[in-house]
Amino acid sequence: MWVNPDEVLLASALWITERANPYFILQKRKGHGDGGGGGGLLVGTLDVVLDSSARVAPYRILYQTPDSLVYWTIAHGSSRKEITEHWEWLEQNLLQTLSIFENENDITTFVRGKIQGIIAEYNKNHDIREDDDTDKFKEAISKFRKLFGMPEEEKLVNYYSCSYWKGKVPRQGWLYLSINHLCFYSYLLGKEAKLVIRWADITQLEKNATLLLPDMIKVSTRSNEHVFSVFLNINETFKLMEQLANIAMRQLLDNKGFEQDRSLPKLKKKSPKKVSALKRDLDARAKSERYRALFRLPKDEKLDGHTDCTLWTPFNKTHILGQMFVSTNYICFSSKEETLCSLIIPLREVTIVEKADSSNVLPSPLSISTKNRMTFLFANLKDRDFLVQRISDFLQQTTSKIYFEQEVTRSLNSLDDEVRSTGGVLEDPLYLLTQAKEFLKEQAWKNHFAEYGQGVCMYRTEKTKDLVLKGIPENMRGELWLLFSGAINEMATHPGYYEELVEKSRGKYNLATEEIERDLHRSLPEHPAFQNEMGISALRRVLTAYAFRNPHIGYCQAMNIVTSVLLLYANEEEAFWLLVALCERMLPDYYNTRVVGALVDQGVFEELARDHVPQLYDCMQDLGVISTISLSWFLTLFLSVMPFESAVVVVDCFFYEGIKVIFQLALSVLDANIEKLLNCKDDGEAMTVLGRYLDSVTNKDSTLPPIPHLHSLLTDDGEPHPEVDIFKLVHSSYEKFGTIRADVIEQMRFKQRLRVIQTIEDTTKRNVVRTIVTETAFSIDELEELFVLFKAEHLTSCYWGGTSNPTDRHDPSLPYLEQYRIDLEQFKGLFGLLFPWASGAHSDTLALRFFRLLDHNGDGLINFREFVTGLSVLCHSDLTEKLKLLYKMHVLPGESTEEPDSAFEATQYFFEDITPETSHVKKMHTPDYRAYLRLWNQETRSKLENIKELPKLNQGQFIELCKTLYNMFSEDPMEQDLYHATATVTSLLLEMGEVGKLFISPSSKEEEEDEDEEESGSPTARVQGDGFFQGLDAGEGLVEIRQAKSRDVGAGREPASSPPMEDVKLEDSSPKEAGLSSAMLISDDETKDDTSMSSYSVLSAGSHELEEKLQCEDIADDTVLVRSGTGGSGTDSSGSRGNGLSRSASLDKDWAITFEQFLASVLTEHALVHYFEKPVDVVGRITNAKNVRKVGRPLTSSSDYEISLSG
Description:
single chain; 1207 residues; alpha+beta; PH-domain like; 47% helix; globular
């Protein structure tokens, strides 16, 4: 390829000159192609270690003027052919032109301009858009694809120099990180090492330090551990690896593939040269995620940039140092000193942005005013003009999105009264003291609002946190929950959204709504608000609306308890948006079908318990208590295990501080009960201790009347636990465990997420195998390997595209056997690798027939059970079952040309008799888990179907069956014997079909003949009803076997060209001459002109006219009939049909054979019996399938490729 001219000082260093002229030199890299001895090995090693482009392009062309010592690289080539084409073009088009110039500077300018023009023209003609990837990175992409056989769809993110430890020997090379794979390549003195690991197979990713290896990354899969060290920037590498592994886990969870963000700003010239556009995209995503988590912003908010600055804080009259963050819809500030001050300014609230006058005290100030008459003064902005321009651009976009939020919100306040009306029930004159405390709290908050501002733009300081920890007043709770959770922003930008969802879901029923109805009356049943239909209806609407907003989650137990509490302090729309914030941002993946998020945090809690209460950790692990308590505590935010008036204080803190509060409180509960827990003998006793403690947590400041707490764990009649004040418990948790940081929790979550998701995947595999192990002859190990291959095929299509939607093929909510499904294109890949009948160019056609047979419900997808059932028949069943399967593949209703009644019978047979357990599945619009369980738990097979119930094979189907048989044998060692045997069986079955016609009613045959004559108008334009082919008696039928290809291959010659297979035009003959013999010629329009396979024809010499058109040739021991070139109905030179009938016109409606006849005929031929009964090496096929690399994409194994060493 032509490259932009680049200066070279030493032209001969490590290069060999092969051609030269006065202006250009063609060179080859030392050691390329011929080994090059020790020097070549050394050069190859240097190329790998130093990341030289010569590894990919070992040829180059240099330009040099005669009087200069400076050379310019103008072309690279990966092959001699490519570089020679460039060389010849230069000689033909440039050499003579250059001799005209007198000044060498003019020559250099001309050559460089010409090469750059060629490159620009090439990019224009091939629609190559300019991107941000540098030439160096494009070379790396080329190396990556060449070394590991990756397709263009596999995007390289970045690559790093490092050492890979194979045993005790380090191998210096390059680590390539792509979207779906981790790859390593090393070449040292002739020894090559390659490693490919799929991110989805990684179970652990750790950054460690040892005495020998101060910086080390350990990558663990299910079967191996891989250690990498000697990184130039280990932190950057590890963060990127974490991010890519997270993307893979997300794909396993919800099937969302990676889509690159094309809206990033252009790369600045000063940016690092090796950073790819994809790496920048991932870096931007990581920063945006941290930004959204820090300020509780909507999940689609993208950070545009951040800069250091100071913020004037009027409450203490100081300038606080921190960072300003600007995104599409928000301006945020966070102080350098954590918790000192933070600020969120939605652009929808901004009225004025102006630059104030600079001074020594206040350099580069920026003033921002909001609708509620608050003004924020920022200073020390490095690039104030640019920042103001960005904010102005975003403001212009925001003004077009501003809605009348206040009017919409007010219109919904009527819903507020439904639940809030219970407040009258909650007020009681006996609580005058607590009412006074409540009044003091309200005053404290009002004073805080007056000093720090109110609403979304308020200054959030350490004082705000202190007020939250002391408890939020009852009548302010809903407002402040919305504010601190960030739900207020989503509600303000989506007016009317909740009402639309309520209307959309009205009257709709599915699995989620059924579960919601079941749990409605279990949601705080002790609370007066949910003892009447008004409160229940509000709860139903909120839960159903969310189920329709997020079908992936739908509804999960525990959501009802949390939502009922939200409704006590917020109206329906507010409660809905609080639930959105909980499920989608603050407790990610908690409420999906497998509660992955809760399991992840359970693992995090175990780690924290080990670090902070080590004396209790071993005891709790032995009792198995941590895993039990954490799910119920975390899923309901302690609402289900604590008295209500105390648990809402926990919710207050959670909305302000996030998940760290829940961890702190859980650790504090364990710490308070250490002595009792250490003396527990079993998990039941430990649960009772904790249950009694949590039941004793009280809130003496609560204005609520006592609500009975129905805690199920209290089963003994022992002495009640002394009361524990909730505020003291929260204060204690901050004192003892307040050092837990949110970023540390996220690190722990990543580690646990890998473990949890891979454990779920392993559990899925085991459950699938356990379900079907009794239905097949495969061993458990074989089934596990097959499941891994089946799932890998699904994942590979998710990576690099497929013909069907990945979401349709993977639904984690379905039963295990239905979770992964593959379509036809994926099945073809596995068919060619695993199925013993796959051979030759016609493997895809056979795969299509097989797929249609396995696809019982006709949705274009097959699950693992269907896949294994089909493979099991071919690998382990007896001859009869294999032939029955082959027979069924050709009587499918879609392929049949029978009368409608016969096709209907076949349909009934396939969808009722063969697979009764799936006959109802296709009728269900929504997944019914109970129905699935009933179906899958039925007995494996009630009985084998009666052979006599199989439909008959008509003439067209028989032709297709014959073609399938011949194509199956094209690569078999016994190919010749199998062809002879198949010809004999074919001839015999044809005669059987003719005999069968004699038992058909003559009157019906005559009527059909009359109708045919009326339609055609000529006796010669149809086939006589007495036979498919007319002609000789049984002894005179001749079979033509074209075996020239086989003999030529055996003799080491190229296969001879054979004429294509065509239908025979049948001449009319008298009934007297019609005998019982028949023969046929197979037609395959798809394989015309395909001379790479042995074809066959069965011909008839039905009349004297036909005999004259045939001549015999003896070739070896085979008698071959060939059509003469004169006249007749043969094919012309182009392979088209002459005057012959179309196949549809030549089919005989009365001709048919049964499965018994097919089976009996095959049993007469020993070669066919041996072929169908020979054992299949299942383990060998599975091993081959794991290691093979298809063209354009590798099919990775369950964990990773073995290290391949050569040299």
